[in-house]
Amino acid sequence: MSDRIRWGLVVLLGFLLGLAGGIVGERMIEDQGRIDRLEEEIGEMKEIVGDGSKFARAEAVGELEDKLSSYRSRTEEIAAGQDTLAQEVDKSQRLKVGYLNAKKAFDVFSEAVVEEREKVNQLDEKLRQLEEDLTGGELPQEEFNLRYSVARADKLRAQLEIDLAMMEKMKGAKGFTDIEEQLNDLRGEADPLKTNLEGIKKDLEDNVIQPQEATSKISQIYDQFQQLDELLTRVIEGKIIRVASDLAQEKGYDVVLRQENVVIYGKKEPVKDLTEEIKKALEEDLVAKEEGKTESG
Question: What pLDDT does residue 124 have?
Fold first, then answer.
């Protein structure tokens, strides 16, 4: 979700609450003014009673009683009206609001490629060990350059394999048919990068290119990989948002916010964390098409 949409939701929510509060405030100010005017009239009548003749006093007393009766009636109307308005405001303030932790929801996809991620961790450790061997004098600089370049190519290929595995899992899942074309386009961009990395590794091992040249080529491929990874992340975020929107409509939510950028604090009752429900829906969507058919059959 873009920052503009997020801020728009916040402004909308604030506007609704402010509008409700404004209605009550205007009504209360208007009615208080009427009460003040009645009190002024009663004060005037008391002056007449105190200063006038018997006839004037009797007439004034009758008028005063009418005014007091009207005053009591209006006071009761005001009290009832304020109760009604308070109830309306309470209802308007009870918007059904939920929020989503998108980072946690993304874990559904990360957990689907655990094996591929573990391989990257192992190669990180290998690179670290090579650096320690060089520093400790256990590995000559020339041999280090070669082995380190090969390990870097292996690691980048392993990172690419994470994205490829995630794409394949989504393409084979029952809940991702709507973005299959996008996934195919991304796969078409990823395959050449994988082929290039395999070629660099082979050239290094065959001494066709020097480690310095290989390092330059690997860096170029890494830049392309980052762009690809960002595109895949956006596709996944789009899917998360669609699942969240569907769940919100199904459950009757007025607003669903993104916790990382919007929600600072929320009471448990009025504002609900929908992250786990959304994660469950995503996991169901990631079920393979064949499994879905078996379960339904």
Answer: 97
